[in-house]
Amino acid sequence: MKLPGVCGLVLALGVSMPAIAENIYTYRGDGGEILFTDKPRAKVDASYTLLSVRKGWNYTPTTLSAARRDRYDTVIARAADDFGVEPALVKAVIHAESLFDRTAVSRVGAQGLMQLMPRTARYLEVADPFDASANIHGGTRFLAYLQNKFSTLDQVLAAYNAGEGNVRRYGGIPPFPETQAYVKKVKQLRLRYQLQLAKEDAVASR
């Protein structure tokens, strides 16, 4: 069934869906599927039941203190080395996911610095997702797993945000505005942290 004007954000339960600039309406279909869209009740098929409305939110620049931004650099470097993932990428994902708040919890239950869903945390053997070191190691391990599954950074980040299945289904970044914004944001942050870490390495080598 085609829903006129709907963004097409039909996702399985448990997928983290941060809001975008528009309001996000969550519906349940007759078959139990969950629909995320920017279209209000009047523009969605009547067979869908409205569950919630989330007010728009965007990836606006946030000023972070150096102490907050850099407090986990040692853990990030160790995890990145253990799993063969670029430290700047790990740091960028943490920034985008939780703003370096180890106690962060999303509305769908994603937890900690790298916003691990409980089932993902169990798979990654993260006993306490609010333990900064355990969360970072688990999330970095997951990034390494995705890097082995996909050939481009865009696909890796899209899979981290929207799930492997959606990336395969659409052959790249899914047409979800939230996921597209997420990929762009993390790539921007990665470049920022590449420069920061390069400067720090240059100073340390003097």
From TrEMBL:
Keyword RNA-binding: no
Matches recorded under Gene3D superfamilies: 1.10.530.10
Source taxon at top rank: Bacteria
Keywords tagged on the record: Signal
Signal peptide range: 1-21
Pfam families: SLT
Domain Transglycosylase SLT: 76-176
InterPro entries, per database record: Lysozyme-like_dom_sf, Transglycosylase_SLT_dom_1
PANTHER family assigned: MEMBRANE-BOUND LYTIC MUREIN TRANSGLYCOSYLASE C, SOLUBLE LYTIC MUREIN TRANSGLYCOSYLASE-RELATED
Family: Belongs to the transglycosylase Slt family.
Protein name according to UniProt: Lytic transglycosylase
Organism (species): Alloalcanivorax venustensis ISO4
